[in-house]
């Protein structure tokens, strides 16, 4: 299983990164299966550095904030109007109502045009499903809108993506034994942070420690946040293998 960091800027695209987008690939039926985790603002452009957009096999959207889903509008155009003709529908696993919300964001009219290139499936707490070579499991997380952490398993290897979340003791159980824990760290300990919104590096380290993960990767750091401070916060709670991801990073699991 291979993870590519396409975009990792928190809350909005930064000068050197698109918002959240992660490409997960694994062999499947004599080819490579491509799962995209989130498709946030600005991500559709750099995603094309790694794959043809028509080769996406499935998408999972952790939640419906713009920095995690708004480039679905551009992908809609690609998959509906490409000169080579529309490819088959691809499954999109997302919170209930995503089809209409994304349709409204693009500006399609009834009947729901967003369902022409995409087949929507509801993410719900505890969902476990098979997508190509992957087993995908979802867990609801504390956030102002309905949001999910995603666990992706393939041939005994485990990637857990936190999505956006406030501090959550249950997330450690969900991430238990992960080979890679891709965890948001939008806040710093020195600030007065609102509850149930995001994590600090220290929060992420505590969760990783309880979960006994092999490798912790921090993501979703906003452009206005000092990465060195996030890393210093992390060092107070986690001494294992770690990194603050950047666009273009490739991780083999």
TrEMBL record:
Query: Known InterPro entries for this protein?
Result: Metallo-B-lactamas, RibonucZ/Hydroxyglut_hydro
Q: Name one GO molecular function term.
A: 3'-tRNA processing endoribonuclease activity
Domain Metallo-beta-lactamase residues, every copy: 18-202
Q: Per its record, how is this protein called by name?
A: Ribonuclease BN, tRNA processing enzyme
Kindly list the organism's lineage.
Bacteria, Bacillati, Actinomycetota, Actinomycetes, Propionibacteriales
